[in-house]
Amino acid sequence: MIESVAEETKTSLPAEALNQLNIASKWAKFLAIVGFVISGLLFIAGLAFAFITKPLETQMPFLAEIPGFLIALIYIIIAGISFIPVLFLNSFANNVTKAIKRNDQQFIIKASRNLKSFFAVLGLLTILLLLIYFFAMIVAGGAAVMAF
Length: 148
Prior knowledge:
Layout: H1 2-9, H2 15-56, H3 68-102, H4 105-147
């Protein structure tokens, strides 16, 4: 009975597939680290905007038209949104590494779930950005028509 459970959790992927997944996990880990750094920098930039816009309003009057907290909030929201897919990518990389080291199919399943979630979030963000671009073009086109 114990042997059958142990055999169920062994990976049944060919060595070449495991090798390719190992390489992909290393690149995923690199991209995840870069993504974490960028998310952190965006968060810090948002906090910085919250504190430095008031003193800059006297030197740059156009900053007085846009509240500093609104810019800070936008930066912090973007940092939070960008953090989510990076977290899934990092989990994918970690689970593939564990699956290869331990020869455990359960970690491959977790890794594939994380990869699916990464692409689902990325796909939804892409759709959202395309909609924003579409509406921005409609607004810009309407403004151009109104100018004539």
